[in-house]
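Module 6 notes. Inverse folding takes a fixed backbone as the condition and produces residue identities as the prediction. Think of it as a translation problem where the source language is geometry and the target language is the twenty amino acids. Below is one complete input and output pair. Work through it position by position during the lab.
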């Protein structure tokens, strides 16, 4: 399997490096969007490196040289201050006052020193991606094309799930277990690490289709592909993401109602076909929903409302929640970048979670709300909210100042996607939000440097001449 890891390493770094050196930014952005949900390409080197993060690391030197222009816009200030705060907390809780390893068996990359370094490296790579996409958008890269690339990425995930359903081969499991026996999950995951991961990316792809008015309409076959794959993942969290996203879509614009109804009809049709071909799948769905939402934990009963909430959450979120309930002093500044798993390991909820994980968890919370509070406390959460607000303002200013209705529609679509995805981020962390933030940064840069286009050349002069004039 070492050979396979080296092959992945050469692909995820080699291809984007070649494209960056060739100034082929279209292929780089396509690669970033198309591989978001392909966990099969994650490189395990000290920590996990996703294809998007690999691009961010490659572009980081250029991003640093562009930092002065990023800081010049309000959104950029919130972005950079958040990173600086996180770095300071990493130094404090990773080295000066490190969280102890109560188990005594964690490897270096799971201890305070290693986790803080790895998490900060991932953070810098992600910020680098935001800056990279922002710079390309400011130079005139079509934002609708980025939205289409995101749909292509979710289509890749959907196709992986459906192919697995047809051939019955768990290719991710085969690679993960080195060709040995693969445990039957009872659900399909395709190219993703978990069925819920695949389902969540598929749900986000559906929302992009519903929220954008791209000139090239998405065929109903693509909608059917997504709806079928989503049902096959049997992911309640993905369905929740889709449900919440649909509510936001309809509330934001009544024009979305027609598209939502069309998607619902396609989904119901796909569901009926699956039910006729694989009736056991719907039985499994019912069992999953009942266990996740209705049935109490079979191994323990909650003795308080706090414990009841923790037991309903994912173990990583529930453990962090219980930690902050018992140690509210950390709510202001959090526990440091990616370090919550160390103190929260002593607060794993009783029952199934404790039996499964024992006295140790190694992952950060999956909910964005809990993740932001865990990393940098309420202060970090406030900076995140400021980032979203300033991003939204920049997009709306670009929409108002556009020289054509088509350009205005593009930016309105981005505004809708930003609102929905930032709300969903608080429920479930997915890196797709940083693609949207990159587009938002592009809008902010276009407004700020409309009188100095040479700094962003070649630029889309039609937008720059009008953006920010209202």
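Target side of the pair, the amino acids:
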């Amino acid at each position: 399997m070492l050979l396979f890891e080296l092959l992945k390493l050469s692909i995820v770094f080699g291809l984007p490096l070649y494209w960056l050196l060739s100034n082929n930014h279209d292929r780089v952005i396509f690669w970033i969007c198309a591989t978001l949900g392909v966990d099969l390409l994650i490189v395990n080197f000290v920590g996990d490196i996703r294809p998007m993060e690999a691009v961010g690391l490659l572009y980081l030197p250029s991003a640093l040289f562009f930092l002065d222009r990023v800081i010049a816009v309000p959104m950029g200030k919130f972005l950079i201050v958040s990173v600086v705060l996180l770095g300071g907390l990493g130094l404090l809780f990773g080295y000066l006052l490190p969280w102890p390893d109560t188990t005594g068996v964690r490897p270096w990359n799971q201890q305070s020193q290693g986790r803080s370094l790895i998490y900060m490296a991932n953070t810098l790579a992600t910020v680098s991606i935001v800056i990279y996409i922002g710079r390309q958008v400011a130079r005139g890269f079509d934002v609708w094309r980025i939205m289409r690339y995101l749909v292509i990425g979710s289509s890749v995930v959907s196709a992986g799930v459906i192919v697995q359903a047809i051939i019955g081969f768990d290719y991710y499991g085969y690679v993960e277990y080195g060709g040995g026996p693969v445990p039957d999950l009872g659900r399909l995951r395709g190219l993703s690490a978990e069925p819920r991961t695949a389902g969540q990316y598929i749900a986000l792809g559906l929302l992009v289709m519903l929220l954008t008015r791209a000139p090239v309409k998405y065929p109903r076959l693509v909608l059917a592909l997504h709806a079928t794959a989503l049902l096959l993942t049997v992911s309640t969290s993905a369905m929740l993401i889709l449900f919440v996203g649909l509510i936001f879509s309809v509330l934001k614009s009544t024009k979305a109602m027609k598209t939502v109804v069309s998607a619902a009809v396609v989904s119901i049709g796909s569901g009926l076909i699956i039910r006729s071909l694989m009736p056991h799948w719907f039985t499994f769905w019912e069992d999953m929903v009942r266990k996740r939402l209705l049935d109490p934990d079979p191994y323990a009963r909650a003795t308080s409302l706090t414990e009841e909430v923790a037991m309903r959450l994912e173990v990583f979120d529930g453990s962090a929640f219980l930690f902050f309930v018992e140690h509210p002093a950390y709510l202001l500044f959090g526990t440091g970048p990616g370090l919550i798993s160390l103190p929260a390991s002593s607060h794993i909820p009783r029952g199934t979670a404790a039996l499964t994980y024992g006295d140790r968890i190694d992952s950060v919370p999956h909910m964005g709300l809990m993740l932001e509070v865990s990393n940098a406390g309420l202060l970090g959460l406030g900076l995140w909210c400021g980032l979203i607000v300033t991003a939204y303002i920049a997009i709306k200013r670009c929409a108002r100042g556009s020289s054509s209705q088509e350009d205005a529609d593009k930016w309105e679509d981005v505004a809708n996607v930003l609102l929905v995805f930032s709300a969903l981020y608080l429920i479930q962390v997915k890196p797709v939000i940083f693609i949207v933030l990159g587009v938002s940064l592009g809008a902010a840069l276009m407004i700020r440097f409309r009188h100095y286009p040479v700094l962003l050349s070649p630029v889309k002069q039609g937008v720059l001449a009008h953006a920010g004039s209202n």
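Reference fact for the lab report: The chain has 21 helices and two strands.
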